[in-house]
Amino acid sequence: MTTTTAVRTGLALRGVTLTYPDGESRLVALDNVELTVAPGEFTAVAGPSGSGKSSLLAVAATLQRPDSGQVLVDGVDAGTLSDRERTTLRRERLGIVFQQSNLLASLTAVEQLLVLESVRGRRPERARRRAEELLDSVGLAAAKQRRRPHQLSGGERQRVNIARALFGNPSVLLVDEPTSALDHERGAQVVELLADITRTHNTATVMVTHDRDLLTRTDRTLEMHDGRLTPR
Q1: pLDDT tens column, 158-185
Q2: Domain count, the chain
Q3: Angle at which helices 124-137 and 154-166 cross, to 10°
Q4: In Å, how far are 26, 52, 116, 176, 216 from 208, measured between CA atoms?
Q5: How many Å separate Cα 150 from the centre of its chain?
Q6: Is residue 95 part of a domain?
Q7: CATH of the domain at 212
């Protein structure tokens, strides 16, 4: 399978159900979830801890296979792919912004983006230019691009995290609680940045969050309760 020529159609979850063993029964994490996010659309999923938000992202990222239902990325049904093909799909079509930036302590901001370029097979000099341009586009000044994580603020580390997720030119961007470690002002700046990125890069963006005060820039907000996804 190759995904490099796929047309961008965004993300679709159709009738997705996910359960986990719970003693002699099973706990329902996702209950017949339906979700469609088009390119250029910024969707937030809000809900309390344990409502199923993390499970939703794991399934959408093809990191977890659902019990039933379909996960389509640019029209490709992830459930029909081998493990190797799913890895390729993630690398070429999905960008994931984790709750913790998980930056490598010994690498500069630019090097954080370059570390996987041998896998993607890009020319190093061209990749470095793109890395610098991306970091600049998310608001990290040139001087700070040469700094290591301990020399950056929490908001700056999150910007590197976002740029790293965008480096593979994904069509779907999945964002896990990006403001949880930030104060309100920096959190608002990160959400504003994600909204701008969604339009500029034409990504289908899904952000899960518990912070309802930062949702004014999203196109829509859905609520997650007990594994069920409903309009807000």
Answers
A1: 999 999 999 989 999 999 999 888 888 9
A2: 1
A3: 130
A4: 24, 10, 26, 5, 14
A5: 23
A6: yes
A7: 3.40.50.300
* pLDDT for residue 2: 47
The side-by-side arrangement of strands in the sheet containing 172-176 is: 94-97, 172-176, 204-209, 42-46, 220-225, 228-231
Cβ partners under 8 Å of residue 160, min gap 6: 101, 103, 109, 112, 113, 135, 138, 140, 149, 152
Is residue 5 in a domain? no
* pTM greater than 0.90 (yes/no): yes
Q: Show the tokens assigned to 58.
A: 């794991």
124 in any annotated domain: yes
Strand 42-46 with 172-176, pairing: unpaired
Domain, as residue range, for 152: 11-231
pLDDT under 50 in the chain at which residues? 1-4
CA distance 140 to 137: 7
Query: What is the rounded average pLDDT for all residues in the chain?
Result: 91
Residue the block writes with tokens 């017949």: 32
